[in-house]
Amino acid sequence: MGKLGWPSPEKDRIQEVTTRLETAVFSSWWYRALKTVNKQHKKGLNSLIILVAWELWKHPNGCVQWSHPMLVWF
């Protein structure tokens, strides 16, 4: 938000660039990871990556939307 409570275009642009960068880094990591396994294991690795990414994405949303406690994983 800007000084008077109006949305800040600068903040929106920064968030958009950051999101694109995070997506690019994740997708390039995923692509490199797939290149390290043979063809018969690619489906399994894809499934594992999707499952972990989904769980990581769901957790903060659950904390915000449904008041689930924030857990710290080590």
UniProtKB/TrEMBL annotation:
<protein>
    <submittedName>
        <fullName>Uncharacterized protein</fullName>
    </submittedName>
</protein>
